[in-house]
Amino acid sequence: MQKKILVAFATRYNSTKEIAEFIAAILKEDGYDADSKNMLNIKDIDNYDFIIAGSAIQMGKWLPEARDFMQMHKNYLNKVPLFVFSCGITLNTPDENATRKALFATDEIQQYVNPKEIGLFAGKLDENSLCDSDRELIILAKPECGDFRNLDAVKKWIKNIESDYL
């Protein structure tokens, strides 16, 4: 029987969405039935055998809709293999401090669920696409703008999950 996998994501500026779509495409190439869906549009997850859930990190946390998704679906998410990933611009230079802060973003969801693996991926930041309030934040934080996504790292993470769990 073909495994059905949900790749759920929460995003602000599509970086996490694009990573989720990339993950689903890899899984489909490898013969799995994989769907990539925005958490805001998901009502029911009960027909999936595996769940991969990812969120952008904003202000050191997963997005509110991602945290809500985990809490709302915690009973089912604790019955099936769950893998999570975080996507953030601060991971463009993954030193120990950036990694620790990114892992901290998943601490809040771990009060509801127990993921088997956590992936941490750099995102992209295009100052011109930001809303006014987010533009003000980057003026204060001064992150480097650009596309820092490493799709090879994402693919390696997915391939490891496939070999270990699928």
Overview of the molecule:
It is built from six helices and eight strands. It is an alpha/beta fold and 166 residues long. It has a single domain (4-165), classed as Rossmann fold. The strands form two sheets. Strands 1, 2, 3, 4, 5 and 6 form a six-stranded mixed β-sheet that branches. Strands 7-8 form a two-stranded antiparallel ribbon. α1 packs across α6 (151-165). It is globular, with a radius of gyration of 15 Å.
Q: Would you spell out the secondary-structure blueprint of this structure?
A:
Layout: E1 4-10, H1 15-29, E2 33-38, E3 50-58, E4 61-62, H2 64-72, H3 74-77, E5 82-88, H4 96-107, E6 117-122, E7 124-125, H5 132-141, E8 146-147, H6 151-165
Parallel strand pairs: 1-2, 1-3, 3-5, 5-6
Antiparallel strand pairs: 3-4, 7-8
Helix pairs in contact: 1-6
Q: Could you give a quick summary of the protein structure above?
A:
The protein is α/β, with parallel strands linked by helices. Helix content is 39%, strand content 25%. It has helices spanning 15-29, 64-72, 74-77, 96-107, 132-141, 151-165, and strands at residues 4-10, 33-38, 50-58, 61-62, 82-88, 117-122, 124-125, 146-147.
C-alpha-based Rg, rounded: 15 Å
The SSE string, one letter per element, is EHEEEHHEHEEHEH
Q: What is the CATH-assigned architecture?
A: 3-Layer(aba) Sandwich
Integer count of domains = 1
